[in-house]
TrEMBL record:
This is FAD/FMN-containing dehydrogenase. GO terms for biological process: respiratory electron transport chain. Keywords: FAD, Flavoprotein, Oxidoreductase. GO terms for molecular function: FAD binding; oxidoreductase activity. Residues 37-218 form the FAD-binding PCMH-type domain. It comes from the Bacteria. InterPro entries: FAD-bd_oxidored_4_C, FAD-bd_PCMH, FAD-bd_PCMH-like_sf, FAD-bd_PCMH_sub1, FAD-bd_PCMH_sub2, FAD-linked_Oxase-like_C, FAD-oxidored/transferase_4, Oxid_FAD_bind_N. Its cofactor is FAD.
Length: 472
């Protein structure tokens, strides 16, 4: 089947609205939002139903053409960008945007892969429920992408990743069959839990088209604090204080280096430093409860009093209203975008046991400074679950291209340090194409063999998102 014949067949399946062929319209599908990865494609196809997705997959299989599933295209590892050949088909799921069912009694919501995360949050809130996944890109990322990368975000401390938030999936397999696994069951002991094959697989084993997700009772009480800390170890110790006092009311615990905050204050309009003097480290802490009379401010202030007594906190402000809460979160959520204004941003997303956080930061910072004196290290993340974003900017007077040329060397420093603490080189962003080639050096060989075996079983021809996740 020639490319022209394939396009004609695809048009018969999805209609004119479902096919993108014009160069000016294709551009947004061929690069990621950071413009860090670029590719080419024969065509972009946008099916509107699961049946259309299955027909598209079957056509491409018969034609021997590779597919690149794509959601909101907000990823950081190039997992949804086609290669440069121009032979691949981009399969955009953005027209699968129905919320099929909201079941408050079962505390579930069933949504299609193209539904934007923020829409799921809003649909849950409309029935006095709460969907806890929260990301900086929640206004544009889609549920299919969140599932394909096993997204985490700020609520993992209490609610877990997308694996923990998912009860059932609907998936189009590489041979075009549809697995109807949309069941809202919390107990189903009938063999292998197949949904976990596809969550985090980045479209290499099949195309997720819909999911049943968990909902929780809405949080009507919230207490938020911005805390100055002397060190990352102080943050780890503070987590234990707040857990002891608040239990699972501790819903978020974020850490940020001063360099991270400096970039936000410099580049994000409307932000301001909550304190009059700078500090080396900060934590953004939030407690939540379903009750409005839970006295979360009292719990938080008691925990902070203990932290001050033990020298773990240097200053603190407890938000007095929703506007101040939003202002504090803006300091955290603006970090990634703010750093982009400082030249090349080498982004790393790693995780270690919480108990190893302080040692990881000390060892990694020292090694990076030895390699590139004056390097600006932007460390921030979800310290409550051990996940740090270890992002690097060039020295103030450094050259952009020279710094980019050392990206692999600097990544190895971060990954080697992470591995020495039995950590992972990818916590929540996935592997995509950016980390697939180094993964073999850090992943257990038996685990890699099992992953390759699953790939060969489900996608023996290798047409599902080739060049991603698995090293050659």
């Amino acid at each position: 089947m020639t490319p022209t014949e394939l396009s004609a067949r695809l048009r018969e399946v999805v209609g004119e609205a479902g096919l993108v062929t014009e160069p000016d319209q294709l551009a947004g599908y061929l690069t990621d939002w950071r413009d860090a990865y670029r590719g080419n494609a024969a065509v972009v196809v946008r099916p509107a139903t699961t049946a259309e997705v299955a027909a598209v997959v079957s056509l491409c299989r018969d034609a021997g053409v590779a597919l690149v599933p794509q959601g909101g295209n907000t990823g950081l590892c190039g997992g949804a960008v086609p290669d440069a050949s121009g032979d691949q088909v981009v399969l955009s799921l953005t027209r699968l945007r129905r919320i099929r069912e909201v079941d408050p009694a079962n505390q579930t919501i069933t949504v299609e892969a193209g539904v934007v995360l923020q829409q799921v949050q809003q649909a849950a809130a409309a029935v006095d429920r709460f969907f806890p996944l929260s990301l900086g890109a929640e206004g544009s990322c889609t549920i299919g992408g969140n599932l394909s990368t096993n997204a985490g975000g700020t609520g993992v401390l209490r609610y877990g990743t997308m694996r923990d938030l998912t009860l059932g999936l609907e998936v189009v397999l590489p041979d075009g069959r549809i697995w109807h696994g949309l069941r809202g069951l919390r107990k189903d002991n009938t063999g292998y839990d197949l949904k976990h094959l596809f969550i985090g697989a980045e479209g290499t084993l099949g195309v997720i088209t819909a999911a049943v997700l968990k909902l929780y009772p809405a949080l009507h009480g919230r207490a938020t604090a911005w805390i100055a800390l002397p060190s990352p170890q102080a943050a780890v110790d503070l987590i234990e204080i707040l857990r002891a006092r608040g239990g699972d009311r501790l819903t978020a615990f974020e850490i940020m280096s001063r360099q991270s905050v400096d970039f936000v204050l410099r580049h994000v309009p409307g932000t301001r430093d909550p304190f009059t003097s700078p500090h080396d480290w900060y934590a953004l802490v939030e407690l939540g409860d379903t009750r409005t009379d839970a006295d979360l401010d009292g719990l938080l202030e008691a925990g902070l009093a203990e932290a001050f007594d033990r020298g773990l906190a240097l200053d603190a402000v407890v938000a007095s209203g929703s506007a101040q809460v939003a202002a504090l979160w803006a300091l955290r959520e603006g970090i990634s975008e703010a750093q982009n204004h400082e030249g090349p941003s080498l982004k790393h997303d790693v995780t270690v046991p919480v108990s190893s956080i302080a040692a990881l930061v000390e060892r990694t910072d020292r090694a990076l400074q030895e390699a590139v004196p004056g390097i600006r290290i932007v460390v921030y993340g979800h310290i409550g679950d051990g996940n740090l974003h270890y992002n690097l900017s060039k020295p103030v007077d450094g050259d952009d291209e020279e710094f980019r040329s050392r990206a692999d060397e600097l990544a190895r420093i971060v990954y080697d340090s992470t591995s020495s603490f039995d950590g992972s080189i990818s916590a929540e962003h996935g592997l995509g194409q950016s980390k697939r080639d180094v993964m073999a050096d850090y992943k257990d060989p038996v685990a890699l063999d099992l992953m390759r075996g699953l790939k060969d079983l489900l996608d023996p021809v290798g047409l599902m998102n080739p060049g991603k996740v698995l090293p050659d």
